[in-house]
Design a protein that fits this description.
The structure holds two protein chains of two kinds.
Chain A (H helix, E strand, L loop, with lengths): L18 H23 L1 H25 L10 H11 L7 H16 L12 H12 L1 H4 L2 E2 L16 E2 L2 H7 L8 H6 L11 H13 L6 H20 L7 H6 L3 H8 L10 H21 L6 H18 L9
Helix pairs in contact in A: 1-2, 1-3, 1-9, 2-3, 2-4, 3-4, 3-5, 4-5, 5-14, 9-12, 10-12, 10-13, 13-14
Chain B lengths: L22 E3 L5 E5 L9 E2 L6 E2 L4 E4 L8 E2 L4 E10 L5 E9 L22 H10 L12 H4 L10 E6 L8 H8 L1 H14 L5 E6 L3 H11 L5 E6 L8 H9 L14 E5 H13 L5 E7 L7 E6 L4 H7 L7 E6 L6 E2 L13 E6 H4 L12 H5 L6 H9 L3 H6 L10 H5 L6 H20 L1
Parallel strand pairs in B: 1-14, 9-10, 9-12, 10-11, 13-17
Antiparallel strand pairs in B: 2-8, 3-5, 4-7, 5-6, 7-8, 13-14, 15-16, 15-17
Helix pairs in contact in B: 1-4, 3-5, 4-7, 11-14
Classes of the chains: A mainly alpha, B alpha/beta.
Chain lengths: 323, 443
């Protein structure tokens, strides 16, 4: 008995939280948005998501096993999550070979080249999306329009394509925008996971309830965009769309709730999170209103990812007994 | 809304298995081992030698400095030897071995159960009696009590705060003491108030002890100036700075003493010991110890003589379970893993916790995913993962700038980390290193 006692420093108990619990928690939070995308985009959404997850997991496994020569950590769920998030940022008619390239960029460049989970500077899924956006601008900005007649349409690369809310706004065709109620449920063109604000917000509440994330980043991003676009709309309603349209269009919800909140690439202190969120909001609005790209969300998050180490070294947590 | 401290905190499963157990008096063992260092500060110096006869309450060793405490015999018998013994720190340190014969107490000790409320002593006399009785903080920190009752010049006590939160999971010794000795505790608090010249005291009790709160509230009515404050269950509320923040909404500045916020914090067990010392002339030689664990057949609260081997307590609680992996002196969050069950009970022993093999093994660690959960739970508002990295890479300046010396070692960070990183292991060692650097710089 004597010799069998384990002696280690306190604490002697652990709360049972784990990386995989958090990753699978986020995946559960993404389920409503995925179901909506299946309803509106059908077969295409299914193929793109499955392909993206498959390639992300495959590349992670191959790189860990043969390049890094260490035990693959697929069980932690992070590659699956990257795969789903990448897919959600893609049009549902994107060919599989392009998805494979995106997955390689996401996992290979965005994650593994920095040393794997926890060490990357930029959000891997965003890295993949931006890589594809720059490399295949035509395919990446031609979105299928929602089939008004069928739930789960059986179309993939043959889907009918059309303009999105943001491209209409960018062209100044504010009168052709869909109704806000349609935008809320996701009945509009766009990347497959970004269209339904309602489903994404449902996911946000789940993550807040499970304490996977805190409110600071999503709320600061959304509030900043709302205020900024609201002011511009008040100044010139003919040129700038109303702030609700901005909130519900493009990748804003998906980005604010699921991409900007990526643990690894966002700040650690509450104040830092707010600065980061406001930064994303401002950059997104500037790109949307004054840039040549219709959507600025991915670039905004990407830029603020790069600023995160700086934010971390200036924005400290509120110190007990401090000023 | 119940109050609690305002930064960080966690709520681990409470597991108060022995909450409904009455305090049982444990039989005196055949031999006790009484370490000379049972408190923070200089070890006490032995005033007995081999062969000396002693009674219960006889002074064995006197305080070895300003921050130190007297130590008394917990049994009657003969000093067998003064030799090294392994204590809860795991090191061999000097201790007095006493062979027990009978149970004869010093005549000065009032052994009756009668409650003595009146006290005509001056505050200085009260403090002197507390010092003579060798009382130290019984919550586990074991800081000599009389030192806390003598505020340094320029500071003035405004309030006594009694720590009855017992925020560590499993432990119930304070809880059981409140249920059985509530009046004595209240008298003790009154004495503490008199000692530091204040007319207000607040007893903070966590809301998971409704019976103790109700009883204490009922009786506190006849003790002017004493308020019972139920608090929201939150670990580490028993931390001195956290409790002050919870109870009077003041944050003690980094590096400052609690007295700078006008507060003198004492554990509820200490208040009871003060009562016994001042009103009953009884030195501190016994205490309530919880023996607990999921595999323990009969989790209990024992009244134990100091120096009793922990194995005796475990035996009385049903014996060591087959699959025991760890024996912890104290609670699961801040207790020390013992290297042997033969370690003696000392003034700081609030509990003995037995964990099973499965509970004892740490899971493998992964890279930090910067989820900031450690930052969110840190009750001192620190960035644990940054401090761990600073320690790992020996960046002592960075660690100091980020207040590593403010860490109270509560373990909330390690408890929470989803990557199972041993944050506190690193921070504790880094803190020691940085404190050494600061001391060297000052001298």
């Amino acid at each position: 008995m004597e010799n069998k006692l384990i002696v280690s420093p306190s604490p002697h108990i652990h709360g049972g939280d784990s990386i995989s619990k958090n990753m699978y928690g986020v995946l559960i939070a993404l389920v409503p948005a995925f179901l909506v995308s299946l309803y509106f985009f059908g077969l295409g959404a299914l193929i793109v998501t499955v392909a993206s997850v498959f390639f992300c997991v495959l590349f992670e496994y191959l790189i860990q096993k043969f390049l890094m020569k260490k035990e693959p950590t697929l069980y932690d769920g992070s590659a699956i999550l990257t795969g789903v998030l990448l897919a959600f940022n893609l049009p549902s008619n994107l060919p599989i070979w392009i998805i494979a390239i995106g997955a390689l960029a996401a996992i290979g460049i965005g994650k593994m080249s920095f040393g794997g989970l926890g060490n990357n500077i930029f959000n891997p899924a965003l890295t993949g999306r931006i890589f594809l956006l720059i490399s295949f601008p035509a395919q990446m900005t031609t979105w299928p329009i929602v089939d008004a007649l069928n739930a789960f349409p059986m179309t993939y690369t043959d889907a009918t394509t059309g303009a999105t809310v943001l491209s209409l706004m960018n062209e100044g065709a504010l009168d052709k925008l869909p109704a806000v109620s349609d935008m809320l449920v996701g009945n509009m063109g766009g990347s497959l996971g970004e269209v339904s604000a309602l489903a994404l917000i449902l996911g946000l509440f789940y993550m807040l309830w499970k304490k996977i994330i805190t409110w600071h980043i999503p709320v600061s991003v959304l509030a900043t965009v709302f205020v900024f676009t609201g002011i511009m709309h008040l100044i010139n309603p003919a040129q700038y769309a109303d702030p609700f349209v901005h909130l519900l269009s493009g990748g804003l919800m998906l980005g604010a709730i699921f991409m900007a909140t990526d643990y690894v690439t966002s700040p650690m202190s509450k104040s830092g999170m707010l600065v980061y969120g406001v930064g994303i909001g401002i950059l997104t609005t500037v790109i949307r209103l004054f840039g040549s790209y219709p959507e600025g969300m991915s670039f905004a998050i990407f830029i603020m990812n790069g600023v995160t180490p700086l934010i971390n070294s200036y924005m400290k947590p509120k110190h007990f007994g401090g000023k | 809304m119940l109050r609690t401290f305002r930064i960080g905190g966690i709520h681990p499963p409470e597991n108060k298995l022995s909450a409904d157990k009455k305090i049982t008096v444990l039989a005196t063992p055949k031999q006790v081992i009484i370490p000379l260092s049972q408190h923070i500060g200089a070890p006490a110096q032995a005033v007995v030698k081999k062969g000396d006869p002693v009674k219960v309450g006889t002074l064995l060793a006197k305080a070895g400095g300003f921050v130190s405490a007297n130590i008394h015999s917990s049994v009657s018998g003969k000093v067998n030897k003064i030799d090294n013994a392994i204590d809860s720190s795991g090191y061999k340190r000097p201790a007095i071995y006493i062979d027990v014969e009978g149970d004869e107490w010093e005549e000065t000790i009032d052994r009756s159960d009668a409650l003595v409320k009146e006290c005509t002593l001056s505050s200085k006399e009260i403090v002197d009696k507390i010092a003579a009785a060798g009382i130290v903080g019984l919550g586990g920190a074991t800081f000599p009590t009389q030192v806390k009752l003598m505020p340094p010049p320029g500071n003035k006590a405004e309030i006594i705060i009694i720590n009855a939160v017992e925020c560590e999971p499993y432990l119930t010794s304070d809880h059981s003491l409140m249920l059985e000795k509530s009046e004595q505790i209240l008298v003790g608090v009154t004495l503490l108030m008199k000692a530091v010249h204040v007319n207000k005291a607040i007893i903070g009790i966590e809301n998971n002890k409704p019976d103790a709160i109700a009883l204490m509230q009922k009786q506190a009515v006849s003790y002017p100036g004493i308020e019972i404050m139920p608090l929201k269950v939150q670990y580490p509320q028993g931390g001195e700075k956290q409790l002050i923040d919870a109870v009077i909404r003041r944050q003690v500045k980094s590096g400052a003493l609690p007295i700078s916020a006008g507060a003198v914090v004492q554990n509820v067990g200490t208040a009871y010991a003060v009562y016994e010392a001042v009103q009953k002339n009884k030195p501190l030689f016994e205490r309530v110890v919880t023996v607990t664990g999921k595999a323990v057949s009969n989790p209990s609260n024992f009244l134990v003589r100091m120096g009793t081997p922990i194995s005796t307590l475990i035996e009385a609680a049903g014996g060591i379970p087959e699959n025991t992996g760890k024996i912890i002196g104290g609670g699961p969050m801040m207790g020390k893993a013992l290297i042997s069950a033969e370690v003696p009970v000392t003034k700081g022993s609030s509990g003995v916790l037995l964990l099973t093999q499965e509970e004892s093994v740490r899971k493998p660690m992964h890279d930090c995913i910067r989820c900031a959960k450690c930052v969110n739970v840190c009750p001192m508002g620190l960035n644990p993962t940054l401090l761990m990295n600073a320690t790992e890479f020996k960046e002592w300046e960075l660690a100091e700038k980020n207040y590593i010396t403010d860490c109270i070692e509560c373990g909330s960070c390690s408890y929470t980390c989803p990557a199972n990183r041993p944050l506190l292991d690193y921070i504790r060692s880094g803190k020691g290193k940085v404190m050494g650097i600061i001391r060297a710089r000052k001298s």
